Amino acid sequence: MRKLIVGVMGGGEGASEDVCRLAYELGRLIAQEGWVLLNGGRGVGVMDASAKGARECGGLTLGVLPDRNAADASPYIDIPVLTGFGDGRNYINILTSNVVVALPGRTGTISEIALALKNGRSVILLDFDLGELFSEYRKAGLMISVRKPEEAIAEIKKILADTTQFF
Amino acid sequence: MRKLIVGVMGGGEGASEDVCRLAYELGRLIAQEGWVLLNGGRGVGVMDASAKGARECGGLTLGVLPDRNAADASPYIDIPVLTGFGDGRNYINILTSNVVVALPGRTGTISEIALALKNGRSVILLDFDLGELFSEYRKAGLMISVRKPEEAIAEIKKILADTTQFF
Amino acid sequence: MRKLIVGVMGGGEGASEDVCRLAYELGRLIAQEGWVLLNGGRGVGVMDASAKGARECGGLTLGVLPDRNAADASPYIDIPVLTGFGDGRNYINILTSNVVVALPGRTGTISEIALALKNGRSVILLDFDLGELFSEYRKAGLMISVRKPEEAIAEIKKILADTTQFF
Amino acid sequence: MRKLIVGVMGGGEGASEDVCRLAYELGRLIAQEGWVLLNGGRGVGVMDASAKGARECGGLTLGVLPDRNAADASPYIDIPVLTGFGDGRNYINILTSNVVVALPGRTGTISEIALALKNGRSVILLDFDLGELFSEYRKAGLMISVRKPEEAIAEIKKILADTTQFF
């Protein structure tokens, strides 16, 4: 039985300390559940912080990088997947994730949320207010908002209980 | 001297008749300027309508398709670029476009706007209200809103006058 | 009715003068037939020479580039398709080509021939000896060897006469 | 310190029983060294057999799939990376591998060997005779031929001893 892969998206260089702290906590909780953490793999912002949290709790971390080498990979990434495809790798991020948690970010994060919803991945917004954007997916239950990492974990468990799609 | 490539994004199956009419008019005007029209290439919605408009005015139409064959390509596409990369091709769409015009759409269109802005392409929103989304790019002058196809053309000419980047 | 897209593959920086002369002649003949020439788009070797030949005869040239910008594109390329995907773009090259002509090259060219055959594109080897490599495709009629550009054109016409797949 | 990622390439549906047995043995040895096994992820041929061998020895298996879902993934793959990019994923396979072992295969395998060499990855041919193909890389020491899985492991250790590039 495969482990669940949880994609964690969010800001890179521009992520605030508060957002990075949330990402770190989320990473810890994901690892404690025995799930695999996937992110964009670079050593900044939400990517670095969430991988650090997961690694510290013994979790496995997968980083899907835009580059052709691992020079900019976070040191907390166990498996750097080198796509060489720039932002085109965002599509691979969301396809590979069984469920996506999105923290505050900008264009890159928004593109990942959009592609995730379009491709049927549930998206949990963690302290990220998108206003009315994608509200049709919220109504359909595919996009959910929470304020704390613990709530994101609880929502993932609910999704798992409702589905057999991942296994 | 290369011709300008104008990317036209917007809804697919779900595009309204009004939106398709705008796309058709925009396609006509792009062709009349002698520019190349690029879109996602499928035979539905904004893709089909904009290609039809451009083709009827003798323009060249480039469709960057998600598929491995041209079965679903619009008949108005001259050059079907087969990427075989699903929604991952959205990144190729925006990189290849010198400037992007976005009509109303949903997740696919939003992902393209996000990737365009992230990669420095100007985005002209044609009758597409995004609220406060990406407002930092609006302030920086990279995202502009217009109501009519003629205004979109005028904005593209302003961008061209301000830059030498495309040639 | 769409124009045929002929992919021209072969060496880049390492291509000899003789090979470039063949590529130039081939480009001229492709344009004279009214076909679209597609190649990898960079301003070196077979890519540059074949695009130059086609352009001089009024043909349309499409360059599928590995880069995120057109800085290294051949000046003879009309439409630079920017994939940002490095050598991953080789797959897009062959999918988009209705038929492939391969001149002498090395690893990049071999990868394109392999992917073309695997995906059902006919490959015409122009003065390129591959020994027994891919001989099962030669037996099946999908890979053909010729010595002169004129012969390559004649073979493409035979393939066109045998098939309705492109239109 | 990251674990070494060893890419194992080779035939799919067409792989012989002998080749699959070699792949299975190789997978076991890779896992016993504590290395990560990467392959194309499908449940056939060298992909399935090498993943089975690695899994049985407690190794971690990464499958970079051409598809948008994991339906065709080998049950022995722990982490299915869903690229949705068809054979375009071959480029991601070789970029992500620190070193590549290639067993007998056809066009797909040849394309991966070509892309690996072009991008500076060492390729160890395991009981796979390529004649004079890529002989310039053999002379440069980037392509090596062995007959047994144990010899492939020994060659990987030599490469590791000569380099610091992976860590």
Kindly provide the name of the CATH class of chain A: Alpha Beta
Major sheet characteristics of chain A: 7 strands, parallel
> What characteristic shape of chain A results from the CA principal axes?
globular
The pair of chains with the biggest contact is: A-B, 25 and 24 residues
Order of helices and strands of chain A: EHEHEEHEHEHEH
Largest beta sheet of chain A: what is the strand line-up? 4-3-2-1-5-6-7
Specify the helix fraction band of chain A: 40-55%
The radius of gyration computed from the alpha-carbon positions of chain A, rounded to a whole number of angstroms, is 14 Å
In angstroms, what separates the terminal alpha carbons of chain A? 7 Å
* pLDDT averaged residue by residue of chain A: 96
Description:
The structure is a homotetramer of 167-residue chains. Chain A is α/β, with parallel strands linked by helices. In chain A, helix 4 (107-118) links the parallel strand 5 and strand 6. Chain A has 6 helices and 7 strands. In chain A, helix 1 (17-32) packs parallel to helix 2 (45-56). The first copy, chain A, has one domain (5-162): Rossmann fold. Chain A has helices at residues 17-32, 45-56, 89-96, 107-118, 135-139, 149-162; strands at residues 5-9, 36-39, 61-65, 79-82, 99-102, 123-126, 143-146. The first copy, chain A, has a 7-stranded parallel beta sheet with strand order 4-3-2-1-5-6-7, sandwiched between helices. The relative contact order of chain A is 0.18.
